[in-house]
Amino acid sequence: MRAMNNNYYGFGLPIDISTHGAAIDRLIIILHIFMVALFIGWGIFMIYSLIKFRARPGHKATYHLNHFKAPTYLELFVALFEAVLLVGFSFPIVNQFVNAKPDESTALKVRVVAEQFAWNVHYAGKDGIFGASKPELMKPGNPLGLDRSQEAAKDDIVAINQLHIPVHKPVIVELSSKDVIHSFFLPVMRVKQDTVPGQKIPVWFEATQTGNFEIACAQLCGLGHYRMRGFFTVDTQEDFDTWLDQMAPKPEV
Amino acid sequence: MSSDHSHDLPFWKKYIFSTDHKVVGIQYTVTGLLFLFFGFCLMMLMRWQLAFPSQPLPWLGQFFHEKTMVSGIMLPEFYNQLGAMHGTIMIFLGVVPLAVGGFGNYLVPLQVGAPDMAFPKLNMMSYWVYFIGGVIMFCSFFLPDGSAQSGWTSYPPLSVIANQGQTFWLIGMVFLITSSLLGSINIIVTIVHLRAEGLTFFRFPFFIWSQLVTSFLLVLAFPPLEAAGILQLMDRVAGTSFFMPSGLVVSGQVLQASGGGNPLLWQHLFWFLAHPEVYVLILPAMGIVAEIMACNTRKPIYGYKMLVYSAIFLGFMSFLVWAHHMFLTGMSTKMSSFFQITTMIISIPSVIILTALVLSLWGGSIRFTTPMLFAIAFLPMFGIGGLTGLPLGLTAADLHLHDTYYVIGHFHYVVAPGTIFALFAGVYHWFPKVTGRKMSEFWGKVHFWLSFIFINGIFMPMFSMGLAGVSRRLYDPTQYAHGLAVQPLNVVISYSAWLLALAQIPFILNFFISIFAGKKATDNPWEATTLEWATPTPPGHGNFLTEPKVYRGPYEYSVPGAQHDFSPQHLEGIN
Amino acid sequence: MSDIAIKHISKPHPVTGVTNGKLGIWLFIASEIMLFGGLFSAYILLRTGSPSWPHGSSVLNVPLATLNTMLLITSSVTMVMAWASLALKNVGKFKFYLGLTILLACGFLIVKSFEYGTKFEHHHFPSTSTFYAVYFTLTGLHVLHVIGGIIVNAYYLFPGSKMWETNPEQFLCRIENAGLYWHFVDLVWIFLFPTLYLI
After folding, report:
1. Partner-chain contact C130 B241, CB within 8 Å
2. Residue range B229-258, pLDDT digits in tens
3. How far apart (Å, rounded) are the C-alpha atoms in residues A230 and B401?
4. Residue C10: which pLDDT band, with cuts at 50, 70 and 90?
5. Which of A31, B268, B335, B418 could be bridged to B382 by S-S, CB 3.0 to 4.6 A?
6. In this structure, what are the phi and psi dihedrals at residue B520, rounded to the nearest 5 degrees?
């Protein structure tokens, strides 16, 4: 059952369908160009030295060498480059990721509660208010422990291993865990965040393209860690609304 | 073994419960190598599952208990056990005991000109405490539910609710930590107090410096892990909730615990050790490489003082970077900025050390002996390991790469073709001193080239897998579409791993055959300058025939005006 | 063992000014500080992160702990007296003071066991709350250190004291090092007492 479009994934970075991911990708690419350039230049020097100074009859090692200036400059360059990476790239990107929370009135709010070995996705429903989760009510049929007699919980939508979001709309996902540490990973969104039991950690993102993707667990969470796979679907707003309607609890007669 | 009294001792005191640092060093080395091989075997089993998920392991599968493999198909629990124990064994039972216990014990007293370690009985004890820790870890495989399976990092709450093997893991760790503490106190006192007359701090071989810094790291960084281990043991055995927050629901059951703990507390305590631990793994390797490079380039190491200062600086800084392992635990930007800055700062001394070692080649007369080949290969391999740390040290790039195969590739390049290559170099280099015979150069070179090719075949593809987003510790990566896309790489890696195992056969045979039938070695077969080569080969009880005195720095090769191209530290005047 | 001479066993090293044993024990104490430092920082983190935390003096027995503090401080004094007596070559007095140190330490353990006993009677276990978890773990680990100190001191009082005949200098160093360790154990308690019982 892996009917997904494999064009999304390959031997390098997966496709990026997020608004913030391009900056991360750019940083990763710049870093790799820098790393490869440094390694090749440095490797050429090493191989050249190995050949030039190989032991052979008539060749002697030199005791006194002049002090090299070049390495000092190289060190300074590396240090400067790292400073640029920090200030120019990493700090702003992380700042964006951690602090620039989108406006809660326009964004879609979703709760994702991880457990061994599933992602429970919780939508507030029509009223926009999440019903409270109670640990003592958490049973197989009610993974989030919702008290359906509560007004706020009546229209709440619970989907297991299925996260649907509308395209071109900021989404705030509030992450938590029922049991152990998991890590919520959306490869195509460049989003990864540990879910720590006892904490509620929000992440946000905006998709630029519709399609069917994956949620992965990136932190060892037990023997089913490998199959803690969720489906991540980006819909148009209309499709998303239809899906929500389908998922909504049927009114009791 | 002429002018000593050790032949009066009964066998068990001479070879088993010996207080002689050389015997203890050999015990550590042999035990460490065995554990290294055992840890490698665990990984080879995992590689079958990764390359051919859920296919029965041919032939070998029938020998496994049904709780580990069902008709040859590995169970996920067993895979997790193998993963956790591979990491634990390689680090705490393989590499550290080899680098600090083995090489440190054997060489430190010799290189500082001492007759033995400062506390010989304590030295013997630290080996046996390590041995007990190893036995506990090994035996945990035979528990009804198997060994620890929460990763070598043992993150709670998973590790607290895990099976009995985790308790064994924690108790084993307490033994291993105690052993390391005793051993490193011994090494520090030996270096500072027992150095020969004239051996000032800046005449130390770089290996001694690396051991000194490493030992300080062990003394100061291991106790917090011991504290964390005690707390986790309390959580598991006494029902406390140090790492357990309130309101946990495990498989539909509300967990009966007082709650109020914090799972991230463990991560802080753990990484406060485990980052310095990285330098515990790498510094002795750099020390070994520096020794071998100076000897085989026949010239002094470039920038010796810079190397020393960098090593000390690395030691200090390593206590300030631990939380870069925790960027994704929801920390504030202030905290992540702080740890990103310290992480970038710590990369500078590493670059300096590497640059100094590469520049040491310039102007030399390079002998391509087997130890030298391993030492040279260490440089680019460690280089790759270091460079790929850069994206992981920047939180923004870490957002995508954290806990993927990229991380696995990164730290294995540092430790496997990095440290373990350096350890191989050390084995080939000091083998003649220890046994009195040389290892075969031809088979050594066969071992080197095959290992070099296959080890890159293992770890290079991991970077591609990591970029593709494949998480680590997955029993079956093909469950994910992005894992399936790179699955051919897993096959390449697995074949490389098995071939790498075959490539160790020349080493194993060479090692054992050379003990008995190798070419006889003189006291100083490599024409080296440091003090260990001033002893008889092999050194007897008490090491030196006369108390050595030191007249010069450690790497006086090709001194102008000298008769030979090496001027040993213990000889007076230019000769 | 006896055929090789290791330097600086009882004569201080000219650079560091201490013997091997003393340098070793200082390093050991440094690692112990890191151990208890790790536990104390865990305690601080858990306490600051907790919505409610009982006031130590309202749940723990402060008078008994004060008595214990007195016992340990006195035992540190007698430990110094033991060493000083030995330095003056008065073996009888040395044995008296070392014996007294051990007795005081045993007294500490007895008082502690009463404290623990009362807690267990009231069904207060490490698993009761994080406060008790911290209390039992920290004091329990300290008790283990006290027991270790008693064993070391008892060894030097009885079988170990034979060394005084053969190598008095080294024996004096050993007593000094045992004293350093004992003062450290005392010091840990002096940190534990206010942080657990008073605030």
Report:
1. yes
2. 999 999 999 999 999 998 899 888 888 888
3. 19
4. confident
5. B418
6. -60, 140
Distance from CA of A176 to the nearest CA of B (A): 11
- pLDDT tens figures, B317-331: 999 999 999 989 888
Share of chain B above pLDDT 90, in %: 83
Share the mean pLDDT of chain B: 92
Helices (H), B10-63: 11, 21-51
From chain A, the residues in CB contact with B388 under 8 A are 35
ipTM: 0.94
Q: Does B240 touch chain C (CB under 8 A)?
A: yes
Interface chains of chain C (3 or more CB pairs under 8 Å)? B
- Look-up: residue for tokens 């900056």? A23
Residues in chain B within 8 Å Cβ distance of A137:
none
Give me the residue from A8, A9, A62 closest to B363, CB to CB.
Answer: A62
Enumerate the residues of chain C whose CB falls inside 8 A of the CB of residue B19. Answer: 1
Domains of chain B: which residue ranges?
Answer: 21-242+261-534
The fold adopted by the segment(s) B21-242+261-534 is Cytochrome C Oxidase; Chain A (1.20.210)
Instruction: Identify the top-confidence range among A81-90, B134-143, B541-550.
Output: B134-143
- Which domains does chain C possess? 20-198 (1.20.120.80)
State whether B189 and C28 contact (CB < 8 Å): no
DSSP output for B185-218: HHHHHHHHHSPPBT--GGGS-HHHHHHHHHHHHH
**Per-residue pLDDT at B4:** 46
- Residue A250 DSSP one-character state: P
Contact A181 B380 (CB under 8 A): no
Alpha-carbon distance of A49 to B259, in angstroms, equals: 61
Fold of the CATH domain A108-247: Immunoglobulin-like (2.60.40)
Contacts of A86 in chain B (CB under 8 A): 337, 340-341, 344, 394
